């Protein structure tokens, strides 16, 4: 699946200053909501959450009031995105921001309770490597909440066949299952957010004991 460098990160760098004002944000906000609900739905609230491909930090901003006392970490390789997020959270000591890729996380082993990622996974060049990193940094019983386009159903297959510019692209169900299993997740499920729209929230969980 490896392709030559596609310039995604450069595009996001250029886009970063206007990203929050683009019409698509209305739609992205509706994708963030079920992820926030899922992160905050457990019996025990997570104490440390990492958002991969955090962009300008809007998902982290939605999570903050629901997770009092938790540390939130945003990771994105586009320096411009992280610069906007740093301005957003300038007065918020609970948010840490890192310029990095999902494939190389600047985080210690088993140090995170939940990992989120919204509309970013298909941009990653090495999803296998990144999911292994997610498993490395998650504590036992930790969860991944991944929202993205999947190449499932008529429109998903159509988008997958038309997709030309992204990293690893829109995965279909067997590919995603293989990636999660090979990375070390023991359980997962997926939920389509709207009928006919190939956007899903995938929740994957590590075994409680390693
Ligand atoms: C469409 S934006 C989504 C931003 C944000 N998650 C949201 O919901 O608004 C995709 C983001 O993924 C980031 N990205 C691209 N490649 C990445 C990688 N390998 N690891 C982590 N993030 C990546 C981009 O820089 C960009 O900020």
| CATH superfamily annotation | Vaccinia Virus protein VP39
- Could you please say which CATH topology applies here? Rossmann fold
Could you say what the CATH architecture is?
3-Layer(aba) Sandwich
Q: What small ligands are held by the chains?
A: S-adenosylmethionine
Average pLDDT value?
92
How many helices? 7
Number of domains: 1
- Rg, Cα atoms, Å: 16 Å
Helix percentage: 25-40%
What this model shows, in words?
The chain has 210 residues and is an alpha/beta fold. It has a single domain, classed as Vaccinia Virus protein VP39 (Rossmann fold, 3-Layer(aba) Sandwich), CATH 3.40.50.150. The chain is built from 7 helices and 7 strands. It has helices spanning 8-15, 24-39, 58-63, 79-88, 127-137, 153-162, 173-183; strands at residues 48-52, 71-76, 95-99, 112-118, 138-149, 187-194, 197-205. It has a 7-stranded mixed beta sheet with strand order 3-2-1-4-5-7-6, with helices on both faces. 41% of the residues are buried. Bound molecules: S-adenosylmethionine. S-adenosylmethionine binds at residues 8-9, 12, 28, 52-55, 58-59, 76-78, 81, 101-103, 118-120, 123-125.
